[in-house]
Amino acid sequence: MRLHVCAVGRMRSGPERALCDDYRHRFDRTGRALGLGPLTIAEVEDRKGGGMAAEATLLSGAIPKGALVCVLDERGRSLSSPDFAKTLARWRDGGRQDAAFLIGGADGLDPDLRDSADFALSLGAMVWPHMLVRAMLCEQLYRAATILAGSPYHRA
Predict the structure, then answer these.
(1) Domains of the chain by residue range
(2) CATH superfamily of 2-149
(3) pLDDT in tens, 62-85
(4) Contact in structure between 106 and 45 (CB atoms under 8 Å)
(5) Taking residues 105-131, what's their average pLDDT?
(6) Rounded distance between C-alpha atoms, residue 84 and residue 128, angstroms
(7) Cα(104)–Cα(59) distance, rounded to whole angstroms?
(8) Which residues contact 57 (CB under 8 A, 6 or more apart)?
(9) Using one digit for the tens of pLDDT, what is the confidence trace for 1-25?
């Protein structure tokens, strides 16, 4: 199952980008044998200032046809890392070819886009900067792959 992070905003060079790149490469190496990957990141940017509705249109265009859509939202389900790994495996084993993880901009996701998603995932009750959410999601995807592979990375 191919994984796609579809996010509002362009990430510049810096610590968040370095973390995303590192975990994406680790995920691709670990996930390949598990039928997971590659992990791609699609960045969209509303240059005309159309707000959440315009961002939703751009994000929708970045989602591969037929993909399972998972939005990152503080109102979503909070999962432990092992439960997140099981969820990814269930999607993969259910025949999904693609899963897209959507990360909104500074104002979040358009409510219509959020409500139409197949799954809403929360990284906790706190609101996180959207660039940091990318790094956190990439790490959790890598962690999920290591859990499924039986690697000692996840020690909990």
Answers:
(1) 2-149
(2) SPOUT methyltransferase, trefoil knot domain (3.40.1280.10)
(3) 999 999 999 999 999 999 999 999
(4) no
(5) 93
(6) 19
(7) 8
(8) 50
(9) 999 999 999 999 999 999 999 999 9
